[in-house]
Amino acid sequence: NSLLFKQFPNEKFAGSVPDLMRESTDASFSTLNNWTLSDDAIPRIQSDNVYEGSNAVQFGSIDSYGDDSSFEVIVNVKKASVISFYALKNNNIGTLRFDVDGYSKLSTSSTISPWTKYSYSLSAGVHTLKWYYYKYSSTAENVYIDDITISP
Known about the structure:
This protein is 0% helix and 53% strand. The protein is mainly β. Strands 1, 2, 5, 6, 8, 11 and 13 form a 7-stranded mixed sheet that branches. Strands 3, 4, 7, 9, 10 and 12 form a 6-stranded antiparallel sheet that branches. Strand 9 and strand 10 form a beta hairpin.
């Protein structure tokens, strides 16, 4: 099944990201809105640390107690599918979380290294997918997400 690259259409990101999210050519899902970004610490596109391709998302730098950095998108999945993505987290200071429709599928404060793949089932229908990172310390940490794929 060949894949097309889905662009990150939000103008807050510096440049387009043709290799962050991929959708299959059989149109098994469609995005229903642009990506929504947190206001506290805006995630950014970077090319220094990637799993595959030339870009990955790096969560924003969190300076204030209780702030977070997040991005989300609403998708319409036409048949039961699997969402997968790769994550990298360089220490155990903050928490990386992934939610589907407000329910936590991944919540970890552990170090994630090397790049690690996570996969979760999606039923047919409309789903809100949200990745976020939060911490309660000013210690520097780098957290990345790459190669988000939805496939039947």
